[in-house]
Amino acid sequence: MGEGEKKPRREALADRSEQILAAAERLILESGALPLPMAQIGREIGASRALVYAYFPTMESLIEGVLSRTMAELERAAPPLDQGLTLEDFGVTAADAYLAHVADRGPILHIILRDKRNIAAMAPAASAYRSRILRALARRLRRDFQMTPKESVAFVQLALAIPDEIGRMVFRREIALEEGRALCARLVRNSIRAVRPSRSGRT
């Protein structure tokens, strides 16, 4: 087989894999839960269950594929960690990127990661990116606002709920995207300002 024949073959395999992952995402959004029947994914793309298993032998490998795809999209959209932004501006920019993703693609991460066991299904690169973002935010809170480790992690988790919930509202067409982005920015800024230490001591 020549080099010219190998490239189309690799592209065809990648396309089929993408079709399966896209179908899995649609079904996750429709059902709002996991696991998914592999046969149903096959029907979505006009293929057999056996073909789906050929690409993703287990439900865990399929979830890993969806998570990796989603985290890669978020990483491309998120602001660089070393951009020199203030904590407030970085929080708003990162929240806006996540809101835009949820508004466009739906609450994929929310559905998958509400079962903590699925976090273990993340590919190392996707898991490392998620941890890097969360750690960076928590570290800035500890440094700039003198929070304890537990306080900083709790705040980050609560703050993430803002773009997640507003993004879902936009996805369901309950509010317009620009209205949602403005609301998200205001809530994130106010949340960060609320925990900023006062000059006389911590708030």
Radius of gyration: 20 Å
Number of strands: 0
Pattern of helices and strands: HHHHHHHHH
Q: Summarize the main sheet.
A: none
Annotation field: number of helices: 9
Helix/strand-derived category reads mainly alpha
The end-to-end span amounts to 69 Å
pLDDT below 50 for ≥5 consecutive residues: which ranges? none
Approximate strand percentage: under 5%
Q: How much is the average pLDDT?
A: 83
Oligomeric status: single chain
The best one-word shape is elongated
Q: Helical proportion?
A: over 70%
How many discrete domains?
2
Jot down its keywords.
Arc Repressor Mutant, subunit A, 74% helix, mainly alpha, 203 residues, single chain
